Amino acid sequence: MTSNINPAPSATIYEVAARAGVSIATVSRTFADNGSVAPRTREAVLTAAQELRYVPAAAARALAVRRSKALGVVLPHIAGPYYAELLVGFELAASQLGLSVVLTLVAPNDRRAATVHELLGRVDGIAFMARSGADDDTVRRVAAARPTVTVARRRIPEADAFFAENRETARRLTEHLLAHGRRRIGFVGLAEGGSDIGRRHRGYLDALEGAGLDPALHLSVDPVEDAGFAVAEQLLADGAVHELDALVCGNDELAIAIIARLAAAGVRVPEDLAVTGWDDTRTARYLAPSLSTVRQDVSALGRLAAHRLAARIDGDPVQDPVTVDSALVLRASCGCPPVPPRPSSSVPSSAPSPKESR
Amino acid sequence: MTSNINPAPSATIYEVAARAGVSIATVSRTFADNGSVAPRTREAVLTAAQELRYVPAAAARALAVRRSKALGVVLPHIAGPYYAELLVGFELAASQLGLSVVLTLVAPNDRRAATVHELLGRVDGIAFMARSGADDDTVRRVAAARPTVTVARRRIPEADAFFAENRETARRLTEHLLAHGRRRIGFVGLAEGGSDIGRRHRGYLDALEGAGLDPALHLSVDPVEDAGFAVAEQLLADGAVHELDALVCGNDELAIAIIARLAAAGVRVPEDLAVTGWDDTRTARYLAPSLSTVRQDVSALGRLAAHRLAARIDGDPVQDPVTVDSALVLRASCGCPPVPPRPSSSVPSSAPSPKESR
DNA sequence: AATGGCGATGGAAGCGCTTACAGTGGCGGC
DNA sequence: GCCGCCACTGTAAGCGCTTCCATCGCCATT
After folding, report:
1. B69-164+299-325: in CATH 3.40.50.2300
2. Counting CB atoms within 10 angstroms of each CB, which of A12, A101, A169, A187 has the fewest?
3. How far, in Å, CA of A76 to CA of A129, rounded?
4. Residues of chain B with pLDDT > 90: what percent?
């Protein structure tokens, strides 16, 4: 054990006022930049505060002004780059607006309404991100009590909504596969209505329809690695892999697992089968063949959500949903010529480069 | 625009009390599980609260009990899996303890002491994670005011410290390379004292020393992708690559970029040059050759930090630093026989599998 | 020299909740 | 039939801060 001394409670505005020889009102004004305080007085207050290591109690301020100056974020229990980027975008924007961020993780299945309810009491507004555990009912209830936004989540009329573009981009991606001469194109991923992957599936169907083609195959699985391996096993087992010439996957994770498993079984990607992903994860660049995918401006989604929430708190009404553009990132797995994975050349599109590091 | 109706301010304890025909003290007791309240009364209060959609104001409670029931986390502006996992571990533990998590991002360079100071006013304790922007002075100041813990960060006597094991594991990793017959082993990464990578470098030196060998090369660069490419360029340019037979990299990011660039130039990994990383990122599994690396139980670090913080807040004194074991993950890039990237077979060690998904 | 106006300051009333402390009434024991 | 105890409940005093309103000099006007 290193030390027994736990920090003493910090000074209050009263002690600062006493030490500076002024009233607490003056101390308060000094810290609230607006109030008019004589330079000498201000100086004295600042000095006293410094000496006392004064830290204003946010709770007291919140109580007095009836604003916590904090935003809540609800995320699923997932530590992938997608949510991390969303969160970073959100936090950056919030902190620039002078707002704190209170994070709550809610697993997709467990409906811990309690957690969210508690969160509600400490923030001025809440953002629900994608597959966060909270169900639509919870979101609706929250939206009735506080400004609320949703990101990549089924829309609720009472909340502002943000999405990355899915359908149109999926159509273009699928058309690109068609341009490579592929005709028997399958889709992998759970196509629930209202979900991102559901919309991607729609776009895929749009493209096929436009070309007068039928969907070759649809495997409804969770967009996770394990499911990708299972899908690949199945395709190999029932020989379906030979009746396909392309596979549009709901996300990179699926695509990567499928490619890895198929490659191990001797299926050549893209020669025998083109495969595409979605999300442009880091692995997509380094995989062999490098993965054609879609980059979403996820941090923009986070940023927009925070700004919208701040506006709502300041009295703005709910707005129509906003969609952020996505960009195709064409690499080798769709049949395009391979490009070595260099940072500079890995960003052929105009979308901002993803931040991913340690 | 969809709706003009912004949520009305929620009911207070007074309104609930009035509606239930009791005093506010009774309402308070009803929600604080401890107080003794007659079943009928409790029922009436609960009903009234339900009907009024009562949400207790956390700020008022915090003010009254002089506890915010919230923990602060300071992270760098980085959206990689490492920090995400840390954060998830932390949040899970905190929420199980009934504590909220307030997140603050501070870039490594910018010393926004202001942000941290503000955070200080709204939480009962703070965790500083790894390369978070706050410098040692800031941490020290915070530690003087509130219970504080650090994770993978230079130790401060006033704060509890948590680390993943680095030195010993790096020694074992380097010895493994020696066992593969490698003798001219270089190190890539900034070896600052007190940093994780600095400790890994120490372990690398330990192994060489134990074998009576000299370090072949040390390139001090930031542990980021771009630096990895630059390092590879340089090794190729000055021919140093031919004087080495192994490279221990400070993290996966460096290793992956180096392998990719070297492979493009015809250098065979691991035949010509063995390369190892650190962190066991997802890409490590899918890279060709698959990357030998080290898995750290990052979410355990987060969990431990949260628990320690909670204990400190309850009056526990500062404890000695705690180190969490790391595990070698040997794949192909060190010279071991390759293993196909299947989820089940990709986890040869006993460490928990990393969560990474979307 | 009296009058306004105004910048600077203090007084004091909350904000919504917790928690001593002080009842209040019913009930068993004597 | 009175007393004391106990389970409940109410009263009220804060917690630390903001902010309206009043006060007080002091200087520029008239």
Report:
1. yes
2. A12
3. 8
4. 80
> Which residue is nearest nucleotide C20, judged by alpha carbon to C1' distance?
B25
Paired with B26 in beta bridges are none
Nucleotide of closest approach to A55 (CA, C1'): D16
> Contact B357/A147, CB-based, under 8 Å?
no
**Could you tell me if B224 and A357 are in contact, meaning their C-beta atoms sit under 8 angstroms apart?**
yes
Distance CA A144, CA B129 (A): 36
Contact A84 B84 (CB under 8 A): yes
Residue A342 is predicted with a pLDDT of: 63
For chain A, how many residues are written?
358
Contacts (Cβ under 8 Å, ≥6 apart) of A235:
A241, A244, A258, A262
Q: Which residues pair with A74 in a beta bridge?
A: A104, A128
CATH class of B167-295+327-346: alpha beta
Q: Across the 358 residues of chain A, what is the mean pLDDT of every consecutive 10-residue run?
A: 65 96 95 85 95 96 97 88 93 95 86 84 95 84 96 93 97 98 97 90 98 96 94 95 96 96 95 97 94 97 98 95 97 90 47 34
Q: Report the 10 Å Cβ neighbour count for B157.
A: 10
* Cα dihedral B285, B291, B294, B298 in deg (nearest 10): -40
Name the residue closest to the C1' of D7 by its CA: B36
A17 CB-near residues (< 8 Å, 6+ apart): A23, A24, A26, A27, A45, A48
Nearest CB among B2, B77, B81 relative to A319 is that of: B2
**Record: contact B145-A7, CB cut-off 8 A:** yes
Answer whether B43's CB lies under 8 Å from A320's CB.
no
A336 burial type by CB count under 10 A (0-12 exposed, 13-18 middle, 19+ buried): middle
Is A171 in contact with A209 (CB distance < 8 Å)?
no
Q: Does residue B30 approach strand D to less than 7 Å at its CB?
A: no
CATH topology of domain A13-56: 434 Repressor (Amino-terminal Domain) (1.10.260)
Residue type, B115: T
End-to-end CA distance of chain A: 31
Across the beta sheet with B160-164, the strand order is A322-324, A160-164, A148-151, A125-129, A70-75, A100-105, B100-105, B70-75, B125-129, B148-151, B160-164, B322-324
Give the number of other Cβ atoms within 10 Å of residue A221's Cβ.
Answer: 17
| Cβ within 8 Å, pair A145-B55 | yes
Q: How far apart are CA A314 and CA A97, in angstroms?
A: 12
Are A85 and B23 in contact, with CB atoms under 8 Å apart? no
What count of residues does chain B have? 358
Token code pair at residue B193: 């004292």
Strand C at less than 7 A from CB of B9: yes
Q: What is the CATH number of domain A167-292+330-346?
A: 3.40.50.2300
Q: Does the structure show a pLDDT above 90 at B8?
A: no
Locate the domains of chain A by residue range: 13-56, 68-158+299-325, 167-292+330-346
Largest CA distance in chain B: 86
Please name the amino acid found at residue B75: L
Q: How far is CA B349 from the centre of its chain?
A: 20
